[in-house]
Amino acid sequence: MKSLLTALKKGNVLVSDGAWGTFLHQRGLQPGDCPELWNITHREDVLAIGKSYVDAGADMILTNSFGGSPTRLAHFGLQDRSSELNEAAAVISREAAGADRFVLGSIGPTGAVLMMGEVSEQTMYDGFRIQAESLKKGGVDAICVETMSAIDEACLAIRAARESTDLEVICTFSFEKIVAGEYRSMMGVSPAEMVHAVKEAGAVIIGTNCGNGIEPMIRIVKEIRKVDPSTPILVHANAGMPVFKDGKTVFPETPEMMATKVQELVTSGANIVGGCCGTTPAHIRAMVKALRGN
Amino acid sequence: MNPLIERIGHCVERGKVNKSSPYPVDMRGHDGADELTRQALDAAIGPDAILQACHEGMQRIGEKFSRSEVFVPELLMAAKAMNAVMAHLKPFFQSGSVKTKGKFIIGTVSGDLHDIGKNLVAMVVEGNGWEVIDLGVDVKATRFTEIVKENPGCVVGLSALLTTTMATMSTTVQEIKAHFPDTNVIVGGAPLSSAAAEKMGADGYAPDPQGAVAFLRKLSIHE
């Protein structure tokens, strides 16, 4: 187990990975299939995706466990296999990353809304705990609670990870621009509100992912820095807002386009940069080159 | 307006479900949509007047949502309060003394399991007086055409969140249109735009739940 915080203290900017889902689909995952089940049924494919980002120069990769909570796996009747699927995800990413690079265990939203009473807090907490424990068992260095939009759910996930493991916990929210020009999550949370809540719950690295491209991420990072000058920030940016062209979904931002902006993202305050939907190993390679010149 | 009816509309707008609901904080301990509707019916206030107030309440919160003055939680709670009213009014719909504006079939397209956006649209449209048939998530094109066949004159709403399911949405629109060219299909979801909706051959694009209501209203004016 390695410490991301220690690595960041040296003043380094670290590069993370890009999209996984797109590549699972390219390798044959059908709409409606469970991506996490592929950790068992298509292990080599998942491993190849992880390796492609390591080869591109990423300092860290995530795990194929975004939807690995029992609540979410229940859509596929796989709620009882949460431990197995999360542990397998971690083992695969560790194999791809080797001992030197970081592996971040991905935990995404359950899809249930606590406020509506769809699941209880306890059920949600227990599910996140299973994920965190299994990811730790499989060898991750840290837990990345990502793509969150609700404070209550994000904080439950962070606390579950903190209380069941000794791992560093990262938390990222997804924000979009609202009518007034500010950024808010789907549940109405502002970047500043996120910062206070997730740090109190125990996140030691904060940030934002998904969204509508790298340019808005620069503005979100600046907003976070206004209220928090020091907590390390991780950004996983989409390759722009997808457009639907000739029956296919296309992301407009090329590796070159994202690479030209990545330095500004870092100057604005990001400490770990990587991609989300629509980004590829080529995007990550271009970011590495832009930041390190090689 | 009768103060009781006005209060019901306010409860819907604020998402005050019933007396025991802790939400919203400033209405804690007050009667909610549930209790007030019972009282209104006991006071011989007609279901149409109650519904009208609810529609107006939903309209107000839907518009606030469109203007980003409130967010998903507020809209969800408003819909929940609306459901509490509807539970009392169900017998009037069943007996036919109150009529809906029409049937709206909604579902998240095949391969996509996201239901928050779809549920929001379903609840707001229902709150606006439509009968909503919710087919759930991961709905195949053939299922949509089956249901359209069983419900002549219905309007269809398709939802998708994943960028990877936009292609499926497009084929679903085409499949429905191939069998039922006169059926109106409206699409919505995070990765979409009105340009994408047009390319798919959909009749409308709803950027938010109120957009779906506006589309439906336009249809009923034209017909």
Written description of the protein model:
The complex is a heterodimer of chains A (294) and B (223). Chain A has twelve helices and twelve strands. In chain A, helix 8 (151-164) packs parallel to helix 9 (191-201). With 294 residues, chain A is α/β, with parallel strands linked by helices. In chain A, a hairpin with a 5-residue loop joins strand 6 (176-177) and strand 7. The two termini of chain A are 28 Å apart. Chain A has one domain (4-292): TIM Barrel (Alpha-Beta Barrel). In chain A, the strands form three sheets. Chain A has an eight-stranded parallel β-sheet with strand order 1-12-9-8-5-4-3-2. Chain B is an alpha/beta fold. Chain B folds into two domains: 3-95, Methyltransferase, Methionine Synthase (B12-binding Domains), Chain A, domain 1; 103-222, Cobalamin-binding domain (Rossmann fold, 3-Layer(aba) Sandwich), CATH 3.40.50.280. Chain B has nine helices and five strands, in the order H-H-H-H-E-H-E-H-E-H-E-H-E-H. Chain B has helices at residues 3-14, 33-42, 47-66, 72-95, 116-127, 141-150, 166-179, 194-200, 209-222, and strands at residues 103-108, 131-134, 155-159, 185-188, 204-205. Chain B has a five-stranded parallel β-sheet, sandwiched between helices. The radius of gyration of chain B is 18 Å and the shape is globular. The mean pLDDT of chain B is 92. The interface between A and B is medium-sized, with 31 and 35 residues.
Number of helices of chain B: 9
Q: What CATH architecture of chain A do you see?
A: Alpha-Beta Barrel
Could you tell me which chain pair has the largest interface and how many residues each side has? A-B, 31 and 35 residues
Question: Based on the structure, what is the oligomeric state of the protein chains?
Answer: heterodimer
Q: Distance between termini of chain B?
A: 30 Å
Radius of gyration of chain B: 18 Å
Instruction: Indicate the CATH class of the largest domain in chain B.
Output: Alpha Beta
Mean pLDDT of chain A: 95
Strand order of the largest sheet of chain B: 2-1-3-4-5
Shape of chain B: globular
What order do the strands of the largest sheet of chain A run in, or round the barrel if closed?
A: 1-12-9-8-5-4-3-2
Strand % of chain B is: 5-15%
What are the secondary-structure elements of chain A, in order, as H or E?
HEHHHEHHEHEHEEEHEHEEEHEH
CATH topology of the largest domain in chain B: Rossmann fold
Number of domains of chain B: 2
Helix content of chain B: 55-70%
Total helix count of chain A?
A: 12
Question: How many discrete structural domains of chain A?
Answer: 1
Order of SSEs of chain B: HHHHEHEHEHEHEH
Range of strand content of chain A: 15-25%
Poorly predicted sequence stretches spanning 5 or more consecutive residues of chain B: none
